Amino acid sequence: MSDQPDADGSNAPAGLLARLAGSLRARFGAGAAASPSGGSTEAAESKAGPAQEAPHPLLRAHADKLCSAAAAVLAVRPGDHVFVGTACATPRTLVAALEALGVADVELLHFLTDHAVAHDEQGQASTQFRHRSFFVGQDMRAAVRQGLADYVPVSLARVPGLMAIGRIPVDVALIQVSLPDGFGYVSLGVSVDVVATAVAHARVVIAEVNPHMPRSMGDSMLHVSRIQHLVLVDTPVIEYLHPATSAPAMQQIARYIGSLIDDGSTLQIGLGRVANEALRHLSDRRDLGIHSDVITDAIIPLLENGSLTGRCKTQLAGKIVTSFAMGSRRLYELIDANPLFSFQPIEAVCDPATLALQHKLVSVTQAFAIDLTGQVCADQFSGEFYGGVAAQAEFLQGASRSPGGKAIVCLAATDDDGRTSRIRPVLLAGEGVTIPRSEVHFVVTEFGIAYLFGKSIRERAVALIQIAHPDSRPALFEQAQALGYLPAHQKLRNLRAYAVEDEATVRLKDQRALLLRPVMPTDVEGIRRLFHRLSVREVYTRFFRKLRGLTNQDVQRLCNLDYDNEVAVVAVTGTRELPVICGHAMYVVDPSTNLAETAFIVHPEWQGQGLGVAMQKRLAELAVARGVRGFVAEVLASNETMIRLAHTSAAEVQTVSLGGTVRITALF
Ligand SMILES: CC(C)(COP(=O)(O)OP(=O)(O)OC[C@H]1O[C@@H](n2cnc3c(N)ncnc32)[C@H](O)[C@@H]1OP(=O)(O)O)[C@@H](O)C(=O)NCCC(=O)NCCS
């Protein structure tokens, strides 16, 4: 483990620097200690001179620690492991000075950086150090490809623990902080994440002190005594904005995610573009809260319109809890000295036990691919490492254990070419499993929402094929059968995109509300449960035979339809995870007459409230839109309710008695 910072004699920086510079010269020659601007070590020393005037009143008390970047990095020794501060607080000036200095055998370690390596015009990275990164962001992609940086697939929440026991050694920490207050406390500003632990275990802490760095509140304070060298930088804090996405697929996914988020939810948003886009669809929600590894500008509109109050949070109510921020100046101004925000170390924010205590926690993870069993690849794309595991595992587990929580994985149904399905029979070589199939709950594409947790392999395959691109579905279906995931009786009838515009809420006579939506192949269980709530007589009036249960074929006929000539709607209550089907209504067109035969089931507890009429009305709208001429219903003569119902479907109704049954034809 590294020595503690104070053991390094921080009270005598000028002497120390001179000593270090001298020893460097002795070891590597004078050229080894050049400053970033190409100046000499002597120049750096003169800038670091003890008599340097503190340029800011708040720094006057700490003038002895102030020096130039070139001078400060002289504290780095050959063989050191140098932690580099995160994301929008990347200490670029210090890193550049260290590159210019060129100490031998140094490893830089970091989570997410911005300009921690230089890139030429062709995008090639250049650095003289080894880099060890816990995330392959844009900054590290070329470096990883070129073999200059190593990716460490580890949960960010576990990194501080590894640092603390020395398995991830930190000798020097290069960070960026705010100005100190009158008590000598600087704030770690927009990046608290793993910085606090790195600082606690480093032999030397060198900080860029930036008057533009907001003073974030929470556990983000660090006393100047922990810092050996302060380097004043006067540059705007790095800004990060998601590129705007108008792609219809992204918008649709964002809308679906939005539809899963109820009032009073606490959100983890991460850095994914879609998750951030989803926040735009929450402006009518109330009392949302934030407990997220990272926050971005996407929270600002929700704060401004009053949707984000944190009132329902069961942990740190009212507070926006996060570990780092990546956004624009607007976000940073909002954060500055604002007690609404609580910045905390990553291991605290991502502690699964704390997360599970947070009610209605929603986490959103963006993935690259998923196989039909639910294995998710989220940190590799076309064989290349991309992004990282971050703290998604903790959030997924936390959200899934949180009462009323939702763990969501989202991905576009196809690659950018619009053809290659990202829902795959099996993951490809070069696509590792970031989230095991046992941990996956909601999966969202632009074609709908699948819920996989606790479901069988067959149910997962059906649910995922249903939200794949319609053109990919036949091949996925065939491969799923070849893999033995789907039994022979399983059908694939619907090759349309899920018709979300066909969803509507109906209010019944007793004021209860239900969702009316197209039936889906995943409704098998719900339909079986509905069937078993019917009396023997009701089963007979619906199916014209005595049935004790539905065979696989029977149930497929009710929920696996082409949605062209065979259309069914269901009336649903309950949750997305466990929908309760209260009504099922379908029609099948007879091509020879262009008339559609209808059939209805309403759960006994929901009968007599107008649900039959409402479902028939919806079916009629769908039938008219498909050019169907009218409805035909063959009803037992004793089934007065159904006879009344059938009469309500059109203005022109003919009734023919056929002995025990009645044939009712209603023309639109
Ligand atoms: C037939 C069935 C679908 C009706 O569903 P429902 O939601 O109860 O029907 P609604 O509440 O919309 O009522 C439909 C009409 O029947 C009338 N009605 C409802 N309950 C009634 C009852 N117990 N006796 C007489 N008429 C009744 C309603 O007043 C309404 O007529 P109106 O529009 O003239 O007022 C339902 O009873 C059922 O599932 N039965 C078992 C299966 C079956 O028989 N299916 C039909 C053959 S395919």
What does this structure look like?
With 668 residues, this protein is of the alpha/beta class. It folds into 3 domains: 228 residues, Glutaconate Coenzyme A-transferase; 235 residues, 3-Layer(aba) Sandwich (Glutaconate Coenzyme A-transferase), CATH 3.40.1080; 166 residues, Gcn5-related N-acetyltransferase (GNAT) (Aminopeptidase). It has 21 helices and 32 strands. The strands form 7 sheets. The protein has an 8-stranded mixed beta sheet, sandwiched between helices. Strands 25-26-27-28-29-30-32-31 form an 8-stranded mixed beta sheet, with helices on both faces. A 7-stranded parallel beta sheet has the order 6-5-2-1-7-9-11, with helices on both faces. Strand 3 and strand 4 form a beta hairpin. It starts with 12 loop residues before the first helix and ends with a strand. It binds coenzyme A. Coenzyme A binds next to helix 18, strand 29, helix 20 and helix 21.
| Spatial order of the strands forming the largest sheet | 15-14-13-12-16-21-23-24
> Tally of extended strands?
32
Estimate the helix proportion, in percent. 25-40%
Structural class: alpha/beta
Count of domain modules: 3
Please state the second-level CATH architecture of the largest domain. 3-Layer(aba) Sandwich
Low-confidence stretches: 1-51
